[in-house]
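3.2 Worked example (two chains)
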Amino acid sequence: MQAAGYKIIPVNPHIAETLGEKSYPSLLAIPVDVAQKIDLVDVFRRSEYVGEIVEQAIQLKTPAIWLQEGVINEPAAQKARKAGIFVVMDRCVLKEHRARFC
């Protein structure tokens, strides 16, 4: 997705940097000026961790959450939708981007 021009902000408490970008331990650890520009939270975590991520995305007023293939958490998705967040679940963002734009 970086090659397509998208800015990636990694969130992983176990690494300091990836993809040439500083990594943050959580969504809420991202500086406010950067977090306000987030258009999409792309989740690569197991389904049981999605609830916590949704809670943080709601606090940040993130407009969209994308749960990658195999990541399914309907209660968390419903909570996000009730908060006005657009949700995609169990799909690969790269595959979808390629199908539409490449």
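3.2.1 Second chain
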Amino acid sequence: MTSAANVHDDSMVFEELLDAIEEPIKRPRGRPRKRPEKLHADKAYDDKKCARALRKRGIKRRIARRGVESSEKLGRPSGG
């Protein structure tokens, strides 16, 4: 695959990565899911294309926002 020099490679393969998840994800009860319920990602994935891809697949997102949040705090409870 070739692209312009200023295109971020991670966002180009993001949808392919989501669709490549084949193994069922085990849950405490109910049917196993084919995709995660929520995705945590760093600022590189803070764009409309990635948000749209997650929404289309029913995956909640927790993506650090550029210029606002630190990626170091992803996945940690917000409080105190």
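3.3 Remarks
Helices lie at 9-19, 48-56.
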